[in-house]
Write a structure and sequence with these properties.
Length: 615
């Protein structure tokens, strides 16, 4: 028995609006986002937001924008009425040239279809204000209302009362409040010139004053939202390519996090979540961070509206670029250039925390920051002529120099302890602690260097430079080393033997379960070939197959530099320690190792005096 064909019906306007609302209004945070974007498009300079129970029972967004007349209100709650599009000279509407964020006339009908919406507004210069209510899609007539000053006040009550089934999909009050806070913060980051406040059940969650225009104002707003530490450890980003410009700020590699929760992208002033920024940031910081650490960035991308589609997602949280490859290249290049300009600058947070733990008295800890916070090494860097590994050798006796002149052999024996030459910001080595840390005296304090982390960065930068020149030089082994491996390890290594050869590591298959190592990178000096190959096999397991050849080689370079560097526990003499300091001063990015950790910190003399109560 065949069933009858289903009857096609035209849905009533109320049902249409509720279906459309389900696409745009999925939770209270979406309501707040739409209303705040409307206020920004209306030219508001201050936006005040109030919510109760995570927005489920009540939301209010008040602004001081241009306001709406009674006729505008009626149009604003009708479907397909908008201030977003303007007709051209030929009377046609250009759907590809969208330059605003939110717009009265699209979100408001959806909100009014599933909640109780009350709008009160006054046009700037008008004698009075008007009010209009929409409840479950039913609109009242506009009526005069009391409203001081120009602007608009949007109040939404009982969200989803008209569609009770959607209420069960909402999360707890706390979770919905957090989502609203995140939405407001993103919008506030995009517009530092606008003041924002957010109050939840009578408790002030956010109170941001308007900031001045320019980079200083933008950084102040970002620091107010992302944290003061971000403001102290961020570098400016600014680059253009083929009509697109990216600006903003990126955190130093040593200021990193376990989650990528502080990576923000704004496209033409609109906060978006896009996979593009994840890949671009990962590529830009690949030299500096391990895979489980993530930087903090806030990037603002401006490009012609025709080159980006903002309508691929109903809530406008995703975009599609006409030329995604160019945009990714712009983001990666801009970030890498900004990090290169930062030179040796490293995060202040690690050392500030350390001093805070050392300070015996309560209160604000003394300032303990990286020597590079003032970026003394910025400029053109000259690559050392020889690798430090070639100069490091085993020795017996005292590891720390016994006299200032011994420690200052590279600095100059005629220099006094308190007169370090300005061209050596890392000073002169004075001691080695626990065969791991080098203590150096500068003109106004002391520096503590992690010898392994520092040398790892030096070796890595030299390997990259040699790789860019064509091939890393290898040194032949008098007796080739046979390294026994599992079948899985050989399967990972064998397809990339040619890549390893470019890095100076020459291997070939030896039987069913081993590789023969014939050469190792000369930059690494004398290394344990077996340990190096085994470590590479493990590390390759975590390298994605989707990486480009260059990115794969950089991953391998980083691993080889780590396993071939001066290890913690290696005893160094004064000449070797000073050689390390001098090469750090001459090498880009030496403020952090390949995993994002700082290679050195500085304690100023004034900080030392505070520790002992002299200040």
């Amino acid at each position: 028995m065949t069933s009858a064909a289903p009857t096609i019906r035209r849905l009533p306007p109320g049902a249409v609006n509720r279906i459309a609302a389900g696409e745009v209004i999925e939770r209270p945070a979406a309501v707040i986002k739409e209303l705040v974007e409307n206020a920004l498009d209306a030219g508001a300079q201050r936006i005040d937001i109030e919510i109760e129970r995570g927005g489920k029972t009540r939301m209010v967004v008040a602004d001081d924008g241009c306001g709406m007349s009674a006729d505008d209100m009626i149009l604003a709650v009708e479907r397909h009425a908008t201030s977003k599009l303007q007709p051209g000279a030929d009377g046609e509407y250009d759907l590809a040239n969208i330059a605003t964020m939110g717009f009265r006339g699209e979100a408001l009908p959806s909100i009014g279809a599933v909640a109780r919406l009350s709008m009160t507004s006054r046009v700037r210069g008008a004698d009075g204000a008007w009010r209009l209510d929409v409840e479950g899609g039913l609109m009242s007539e506009p009526a005069p209302a009391g409203f001081g000053g120009a602007g608009a006040r949007m109040e939404v009550r009982d969200l989803f009362f008209a569609t009770p089934a959607r209420l069960k999909f909402l999360k707890s009050d706390q979770a919905e409040t957090a989502a609203i806070g995140d939405a407001v913060r993103r919008l506030a980051m995009a517009r530092p010139d606008v003041a924002f406040s957010l109050t939840s059940s009578g408790r002030k969650m956010l109170n941001l004053s308007a900031e001045a225009s320019g980079d200083a104002g933008r950084l102040a707003r970002l620091a107010a939202i992302m944290g003061r530490d971000f403001g102290d450890n961020a570098v400016a980003v600014d680059a253009t390519r083929e009509g697109a410009r990216v600006s903003g700020f990126a955190g130093l590699p040593t200021y990193n996090r376990g989650l990528p929760d502080k990576q923000y992208l704004f496209v033409n002033g609109r906060p978006v979540r896009d996979k593009l920024i994840v890949g671009a940031v990962r590529g830009a910081y690949a030299d500096f961070l391990s895979k489980d650490r993530h930087p903090a960035v806030a990037l603002f991308l401006d490009l012609p509206p025709r080159d980006v589609d903002v309508n691929v997602h109903p809530a406008k949280t995703e975009v599609r670029f006409r030329d995604a490859g160019t945009i990714r290249g712009l983001l990666v290049g801009a970030l890498r250039h900004a990090l290169a300009e930062a030179g040796h600058r490293a995060s202040t947070t690690t050392s500030a925390f350390a001093l805070g733990r050392m300070t015996p008295q309560a209160g604000a800890p003394a300032s303990f920051q990286s020597v590079a916070s003032s970026n003394p090494f910025r400029g053109d860097f000259q690559r050392p002529d020889e690798g430090l590994a070639d100069r490091v050798h085993a020795f017996e006796g005292m590891t720390a120099p016994s006299t200032p002149d011994q420690a200052s052999s590279d600095v100059g024996s005629d220099q006094g302890a308190d007169h370090m030459p300005s061209e050596h910001p890392l000073g002169a080595a004075r001691a080695q602690l626990h065969e791991t840390y080098i203590v150096s005296q500068t003109a106004d304090g002391l520096v503590i260097v992690d010898q392994h982390a520092a040398h790892e960065r030096l070796v890595y930068e030299r390997m990259k430079a040699r790789l860019a020149e064509g091939r890393v030089a290898g040194q032949g082994l008098l007796i080739p080393e046979i390294v026994e491996l599992t079948a899985d390890e050989i399967a990972r290594l064998e397809p990339r033997l040619a890549e390893f050869e470019e890095l100076g590591l020459v291997m070939e298959r030896f039987g069913e379960d081993a590789l023969m190592v014939r050469e190792t990178p000369a930059l690494l000096g004398e290394v344990n070939a077996k340990a190096l190959v085994e470590a590479l096999a493990d590390d390759l397991a975590g390298i994605g197959e989707t990486l480009s050849l260059k990115e794969k080689l950089e991953e391998v370079c980083s691993s080889m530099a780590c396993h071939g560097s001066v290890r913690a526990g290696r005893r160094l003499n004064g000449e070797e320690m000073n050689a390390l300091l001098r090469q750090m001063e001459a090498t880009p990015h030496s403020g952090q190792c390949n995993h994002g950790r700082p290679t050195y910190v500085e304690l100023k003399l004034a900080d030392i005096e505070r520790l002992f109560g002299r200040r």
